[in-house]
Each structure stands twice: as C-alpha cells, then as structure tokens.
User: What shape does this take?
Amino acid sequence: VADPAMKVKLSVLLLSLVLLVSTLGGVAQTCANGDDTCRANIDTQKQASDPRRTITIDNLSKYRADIHYDDGRFGKIIQTVTSKGGSPNPISTFVGHRFFVTMHGVREGLVDPTTDEQIFFTVGGDELNDKFIIPKEATTSKTRCKDRYPVCKKEAARGECTNNPGWMIVNCCQSCEEKEGYGHLIDSEVRCTRERLNATKAAFDVGSLDDLFTRWATEEAFVQYEPNVISSPGKTHGAEHDGPWILTFDSFVDDEEIEALLKGAEYGGFERSTDQGNIIASSGEKEKVVSTSRTSSNAWCRRECEIMPGVKRVSNRIEEITGIPQGNYESFQILKYEVGEFYRRHHDSSGKNKNMSGHRILTVFLYLNDVEEGGETAFTDLGISVKPKKGRALIWPSVLNDDPDSWDSRTYHEARAVVKGTKYAANHWIHQYDFRNANVWGCSGSFA
Assistant: This one.
C-alpha cells in the first residue's frame, strides 16, 4: 500500500482482529507427537464447549414405537422404530434435549411397568454419540385416567377440557377429572353415544337418496350447475349406465373458490396421505398409518382454512343443494397427486360401520384443476371413468336408497395415476349422523 495513512489503518485493523481472536478463542494449544493425554484433554475441551450430540434409540419392546421430541407442550414426532430390536437412523440433537416414547400411530405412552412412569430420554453432556434403550418390559400404563404431558394442568386451567374435550380427556384425563369431573369419559363406550351427544337425527330416510338425485337431475334450480347423470337406477334422466346414482355438476365451483381452497391447504400443509387403522385402546383411539394403497398428499381444511369466505361459500352451497347440515360433514380434505401417484380401489364407507356418526352416505368430490393426462376417478365395478375438469363436482352415494344404514358395495372406486401434470381436488364426506360434535368429543378415532 503506497499511502502511509492507509498502512497505519490496516495495521490497527490487523491488531484488532488478532486481539478479538485471542479473546474469543484463547491461544491455540498444540501437543507433542505421541502425547495422547494432551490430545484427549483437547478433545474433552472441544466436546464440553459444543452442545451438539448424536443419539440412537434401540427398541427392545414388543411395540412399534414413535419417538417424540419434548417441546414443552405435546411433543413433535421425529421417528418411528420397529419392535423387538428396531433401531432408526441417528438423531442429531443437543445437550439437554428430551424425548418420549408412545405406541405407534397414537399418543399412548410406553411406561416402565415397575413405576408406571412414562419413558423419557434426556441427552447428557458426556458422550458425543449416545444410545438409549426402550426396554423389553416397556408397556402401556395400567392407569386409565392419567396425564400424558406435563402441560396438561395448564391446558385444563385455561378451559381446554371443555373447548377440546375429546383430545383432552384422552391425553390429559387426570387434569380434566380434577377440573371438570370428566375422568369417567375416558371410556369411549360411555363418552360416545348418540343419545349423550344429541346426535340421533338421521340425514337419510328410506327413499331420500333417490329423491335427492332426482331433484338434482330435473329441477330448474340446479340447471345453473350443469348437472349430468352418469349412472342411475334404470338408466333414467339420460344416464348411460344402469346402476347406483353417479352425477356431476360441471360448473359447481368458481376460480375464486378454488383459489381459496388451495390457499387454505397451505395453512395445514400437504402431507403424505394416511389411513385409520384398528382401534387399539378403550379410549377410542385409532392407529394412524401411512397408506400403502394411495400415494397422494393431503391437507385438512380446518380452523383458518374453513373460515375463509371462498371455502365457506362452497360448504354452504353443498348444504343448500343436499339439505344436510354441515355438522354431518368431515372437514374438506384437499388432495394433490403428482405424476405417478394414485389411490387404489377402495370404498368411502364399510360394510359394518359402528362409528357414532354412521356411514359416509355421500361423497362430494371437487376437481380444482384440469389434468393434462390421467388422474380419472374410476368406478372399478361399474366400468365408469370421470375425467378431472376444473370446477366440476362429482357426487355419489355410499349407501342404499332402500336402507341408508347399509353400504352400497357397487361404488368401489379408484383415483388413477396422473400421467402428465398435477391433480388438485377436494372433498367433503357427508355422514348419516352428526360428525362434527362426535369428532370434538373424540368419537371418530382421529381426535382432530
């Protein structure tokens, strides 16, 4: 540098940097060749100053288990480990972090049978790589009414036992017993009856189904939605197929409403689609399992999503045309299928339905975009295929006109794989009895 003043400035800056490094890191320590004790001391100092750790968790118990990070509230699931020796990938974490273990797919904690205390693991500072063991004896608690989380008392104190009773009774039973006297409701057979929840009014009587679809096909009020009867008993009303009712309204949702539904999906976020497994606890919990028959992603339209004006308009319109109150509807499920993704042959209800809300009696399926190729909804036993079309509603029943408490086995269907493009869709499933209140009280298996 030619300028003397600039040389001075650079010298001062260099000195400042040297002092800063010395202050933050001290003088670097070196070891003579072969001085293993010196090197071990350096490693110990580095380890003590670095809070990062790697842990693994081996599962020796008979239960498939979910590992949750304890965030001070209800935990965040991070891994699933198989039973009897399963060990997942290492977990990158920090000193002081804590983890707890539950049965897979539900929140029922695994406990030490000698103390009935839930199993927790806390990351210490001694080892960079640590291993924790879920013991062979780990089991579920014998105490039916207990709190699963330390935060339960606080949640009960702020009124969540009445605001969100199903989830709280199952997960914070002890606190809800102390606050509201709800402990006996941990038994789903006590908690989940139509009489107790005032859900005894059926949506469909004998003949209601035929009456509804006939009105859609014939009355002037529905012409604006462009009805097209694809299948009907006796091939009536221009249907090409003789069979159960299948109908489309080809102009049912507009661009603004579609945008609202897609925007609403962002609140919850798309996740790999799951199915409900078996009921695995007397509390009524059903195991949540990753679906092998469908590879789509879905988001549930709840809270912020379902109060969006565009979303409300669509639900209100469905209520208006069906005459069935929205309390019987499951929240909108918003779906995304990428190329190659599908949903294999399935039925929207089941032969022996013992749910408090009864069968899903109707599916209202909305196509939110055009798909370049593939993505059809195919009724596999009927030889019927419906192509996605933006704004179209496809509606079909899952029950019989002459016995709406019995399913119609003819309406098996599948979502064919998308060949080109992306498919977006949304659906309301409509139940024979009230669903929304049943869901709030934890009587649908999902505790949403």
